Amino acid sequence: MAGKSLNKVLLIGNLGKDPELSYTASGIAVAKFSIATNERWKDAEGNVQERTEWHNIIAWRKLAEICGQYLKKGSKVYLEGKIQTRSWDDKNTGAKRYATEVIADDLIMLDAKGAPTDAGSGSPVAEESGAAAEKEDLPF
Fold first, then answer.
1. Helix then strand then coil, % of the chain, to nearest 5
2. Under DSSP, is residue 16 helix (H, G, I), strand (E, B) or coil?
3. Are 125 and 134 spatial neighbours (Cβ–Cβ below 8 Å)?
4. Phi, psi of 48 (to 5 degrees)
5. How many CB atoms sit inside 10 A of residue 118's CB?
6. Mean pLDDT, rounded, for 86-112
7. What does the alpha-carbon distance between residue 103 and residue 82 come to, in Å, rounded to a whole number?
8. Could you tell me which of 28, 36, 46, 128 has the fewest CB atoms within 10 Å of its CB?
9. Exposed, middle or buried, 129 (CB in 10 Å: 0-12/13-18/19+)?
10. What is the DSSP letter of 132?
11. How far apart are alpha carbons 125 and 140 in whole angstroms?
12. Burial class (CB in 10 A: 0-12, 13-18, 19+), 38
């Protein structure tokens, strides 16, 4: 039975370290970083418990350059993307290795004076395509 499927991730968290910006051999920008999300709950005894989950993030092209320029360790971000798992053979052991990552396609910076904006363009969302949202001139 053919049906619809969805691979969509929405995260709000803080960067664990500065993004690592590099370029492929063909000149395409790629940024790698991780963000932490926290979960809090009360256990059976009423004690507050907390768990931190780390998410590995990959951004490409213009979004990667924006991440490399404006994001720093501790930056709070909202991002949208998809989950992707890649595999490779470990050169030392020959074992198959896997990494699950979030491929980011939209990002909102949440640190800038309480206003969620892309610090580079004033756009509310930094998109992989680099398209900036247009500001409307309102008569009031």
1. 5, 50, 45
2. coil
3. no
4. -75, 130
5. 20
6. 91
7. 5
8. 46
9. exposed
10. P
11. 24
12. exposed
pLDDT above 90 (res 129): no
Contact between residue 62 and residue 70 where contact means Cβ atoms under 8 Å apart? no
Domain ranges of the chain: 9-40+49-127
According to CATH, the superfamily of the domain at 9-40+49-127 is Nucleic acid-binding proteins (2.40.50.140)
pLDDT at 111: 84
Q: What's the whole-model pTM score?
A: 0.73
Element spanning 33, H or E: strand 29-42
* Residues 6+ positions from 29 with CB-CB distance below 8 Å: 21, 22, 23, 60, 61, 62, 64, 65, 68
